[in-house]
Amino acid sequence: MAETEIISNSESNDQFFEGVEKLIEIWFTPAKQADLRKITRQQWEKVLKIVRCEIISFTKSEQVDAYVLR
């Protein structure tokens, strides 16, 4: 089993996950006014299920939506 580590930055109490990384590519058809942030979590889960992947964490800001997958 691969080792994983959760590291905490004591200055800001931020945590990040460090472990085995995989790549998943999803290609989208170009569209006017496209916004990937409008894809619902349920829609992402349906796509990820195909490759036996799941969302284990999610965080959002004005600039980015970030998912941790397993």
UniProtKB/TrEMBL annotation:
Which pathway does the database say it acts in? Amine and polyamine biosynthesis; S-adenosylmethioninamine biosynthesis; S-adenosylmethioninamine from S-adenosyl-L-methionine: step 1/1
Instruction: Write down the superkingdom of origin.
Output: Eukaryota
- Return the Pfam families for the record: SAM_decarbox
Molecular function GO terms recorded: adenosylmethionine decarboxylase activity
Q: Which UniProt keywords apply?
A: Polyamine biosynthesis, Spermidine biosynthesis
| Keyword DNA-binding attributed | no
Under the heading InterPro entries, the entry gives: AdoMetDC-like (IPR048283), S-AdoMet_deCO2ase_core (IPR016067)
Please name the GO terms of the biological process aspect recorded for this protein, alphabetically.
Answer: spermidine biosynthetic process; spermine biosynthetic process
This enzyme catalyses: S-adenosyl-L-methionine + H(+) = S-adenosyl 3-(methylsulfanyl)propylamine + CO2
Which GO terms of the cellular component aspect does the record hold?
Answer: cytosol
Keyword Chloroplast recorded:
no
Task: Please give the family membership noted in the entry.
Answer: Belongs to the eukaryotic AdoMetDC family.
PANTHER family, alphabetically? Answer: S-ADENOSYLMETHIONINE DECARBOXYLASE, S-ADENOSYLMETHIONINE DECARBOXYLASE PROENZYME
**Name this protein carries in UniProt:** S-adenosylmethionine decarboxylase proenzyme
